[in-house]
Fold this protein.
Amino acid sequence: MPMSEACSSKISGHRRGRWLLPAALLLLIMIFVHPHADEFGCADGRVAVADLGDGVIMRTCLLEKQPGVVVRIGPMELIKNDILILKTQTNHAGRLHGLFSSWSDAGRLQEQGRYHDGLKQGRWMFSDGNGLSRVFYYRAGVPLGL
């Protein structure tokens, strides 16, 4: 084999091997990282991800308020089989606070409203599986007008 062919063969083999490792890493990242992982972040605390079983993954933020005392704080999501089924947030006391939304396994909105310091507040929409929706109003967790 002439010297130029041997060098050419070595160089092209080296080039093929150079992209193999990055491609394998990219494939692993695509398999093990949730498609919306870059959209989830914590203003306080650290991101925690837990597999709850039955295809359900929870993403939330944990804050160690003092040694040995950890609270869930900020955003929290439940994702089932790559479909967002619950999105909410908590305050620094660990109570639900802010927008709350839940969806069916098919991705249809089922419930939406706001919490204030752990209690339902204001307008809440509930929808059944047949497309029928109802709206209720709450003040400090108590439904109004029922």
Summary: The helical segments are 3-32. The chain has one helix and nine strands.
